[in-house]
Predict the 3D structure of the following.
Amino acid sequence: MAKENILVVDDEADILELVQFNLIREGYQVTGAASGEEALKRAKAGSFDLIVLDLMLPGIDGLEVARVLKNDKKTEQIPIVMLTAKGEEVDVVTGLELGADDYVTKPFSPRILVARIRAVLRRKSKAPVDDSAVISIHGLEIDPGRRLVVTDDGPIDLTYTEFQVLYILARRPGWVFTRSQIVDGVRGSDYPVTDRSVDVQIVGLRKKLGSYGKYIETVRGVGYRFKETP
């Protein structure tokens, strides 16, 4: 049974109770907080393996809570799964760029939320990503040293940018990357590339990958991710 300690933050009592109930049933240790101020106090005083954070909070909102936590050495490594209302795409993008790990939109299925939490905790428990290691996933071999992508049908000829985009996504399967995070990973934060440019690169990359292109998933209004399971 899971023993990780999770902080759940939501100002709606029924949602807070629902999330806590389902996580406790899965074997997690759970602490609740009903405001941003309480969340920060508990996060800094305790030792948590993950935080489920509602963005729409009275007083200090969820984005500010995430910003404070990610700028504190004591709490910066704690994964955050955001709870958001539909239509808050801008807030989702901002949260991910602040360092949140995933998000679930309201209304949500408790089973999906628990599955997302498990996935984030699983990624956290893995060894740090080796920037020089060859990635083998879903029949693709991605070699960053030789800048080579090989499938069962042979090598695929990619441009520098296409290779970088694929490598950024595939090295962390399941993670959602915003367009600006992809740009930063490819060229650096000072490189003037628009969101539209990223979309064009993705279209070209999927075309070259053929049947393997399906593993690059669009996260509507947010960005892209590489599918974690076939």
Observations:
- The chain has a mean pLDDT of 88.
- The first helix runs from residue 13 to 25.
